[in-house]
Amino acid sequence: MILNLASKEYSKCIEKYLEPEDTYITCIFGEWKKGKVVQKGTQAKMARGEMVRFMGEKGILNVEELCGFDRLGYHFEEELSSDKEYVFIRN
User: Fold this and answer.
1) Along the 91 residues of the chain, how does pLDDT read in single tens digits?
2) Distance CA 52, CA 41 (A)
3) Is 26 in contact with 11 (CB distance < 8 Å)?
């Protein structure tokens, strides 16, 4: 399993090397704006770093545990997420 916490620009560099059998999950950190989820660069970058810290402190070993991330005002939105994208919304 590969957890993508990179920006879109860096993700493109990795995605071309993925094999069909690879499990690749991208975390989206955003907020609601005009009825859709919008990512703001600086806040998303901070959230990605905080996710790494969360994983280390909690000893995360499986992807389901990521749903417990609740830092910097973000929380997991199951309705917006899929098996390839985990969406976290900031209040």
Assistant:
1) 899 999 888 999 999 999 999 999 999 999 999 889 999 989 999 999 999 999 999 999 999 999 999 999 999 999 999 999 999 999 8
2) 17
3) yes
Structure tokens at 55: 């994983």
Give the other-Cβ count within 10 Å of 78's Cβ: 9
Q: Is 68 helix (H, G, I), strand (E, B) or coil?
A: helix
Residue with tokens 């005009």: 34
Residue 72 corresponds to which tokens in the numbers above? 């910097």
CA distance 32 to 37: 5
CA 36 distance to own-chain centroid: 17
> What's the maximum distance between 2 C-alpha atoms anywhere in the chain?
37
Entry pTM: 0.91
Dist CA 42 CA 34 (whole Å)? 20
Asked whether the beta carbons of 66 and 55 are under 8 A apart, the reply is yes
Q: How many CB atoms lie within 10 A of CB 52?
A: 12
